[in-house]
Structure of Uroporphyrinogen decarboxylase:
Amino acid sequence: MNDLILRTARGEKTERTPVWLMRQAGRILPEYRAVRSSVSGFVELCQTPELACEVTIQPVDLLGVDAAIIFSDILVIPEAMGLPYEMVEKRGPFFPNTVQTEKDLDKIRVADVQSDLGYVLDAIKLTKKELNDRVPLIGFAGAPFTIFCYMIEGQGSKTFSKAKKMFYTQPEFSHKLLQMITDSTIAYLKAQIEAGADMIQIFDSWAGILSPEQYDIFAMPYINQICDSITEVPKTVFAKGAYFAREAIGKSNCNTVGLDWNMDVAESRKLVNGKVLQGNLDPCALYGSDKDVEKATIKMLDTFGPDHHIANLGHGVYPDIDPEKVKVFINTVKEYSAKMRG
Ligand code: CP3
């Protein structure tokens, strides 16, 4: 088994730096779009374990990444709590119903993972079997604050100001909903691990819109609950834009701290208390020529140094990136990081 990423996440020295990409399943691969167009929509693809398994493994075969990430979405949690969603072409997620008041909490529930999310667990079991230990499988969930954003707003937003407004106007309601999301997420991640996930990542995609004080009150305590509850496998916390939270995440019970491309690596090393770092190439760097991608990748590897680093982009790969450039990124990490060990 290629278990480089697991050994690195546990803090061990390895023969080279492991590499994978956030959002590697889907988006950029024509082979994904072929599978995607064979079904009615994104939600059906997520809910069909055979197909979810197929598109999970595509980047392992086609790109050569050191880990697979299960094909699903962070939005399956609000759905399992009672808010179904649609994925609208070119617009993104849309929830016909949202939560706005304390009374609305009676209409939703803490997810019953086995009955509401059994399809993800089946996809994980099947994928583990098909991967046959070639690379580890990453399970994931959204962080409670990011999920809260979608449950309040019902769709994407530049500011998520309706969600943030709740923290100023209805803090008690906000904490109740965040706790329900957290309870659902802990049960969900535990079930993913039981089904075979070898490590997990928590995506706090909208973390950067909160003030540091709000992050301490409405985000970090729930991430801590999750990290304290999951003891079975290595955990990564990626809080996009939350440069101010690195120290708190460094003190949490996670193994790896995800960095976006705005976060300085040397400064992050000091803040995170010896934890492993993941990231952080600007996804736009992959628009450059092969030579430019190689140069940018080498520069990134030099700033992180050989140990305690999982190579990745600083956010998900963009849909219009040429898969060939992704391969240049991956192959450069593999070759250069082996050389860095002398
Ligand atoms: O990483 C992977 O490749 C595994 C699958 C995965 C998806 N979404 C599949 C997907 C993962 C890990 C996610 C996480 C996710 N989903 C996040 C956190 C990561 C991040 O990018 O910040 C967020 C915020 C979402 C919510 C979401 N899902 C949005 C806003 C959208 C629409 C815009 C977009 O990103 O494409 C989605 C749709 C989505 N999720 C697609 C895929 C492959 C595209 C839909 C399609 O194929 O029709």
Summary: The first helix runs from residue 4 to 9. The first strand starts at residue 68 and ends at 69.
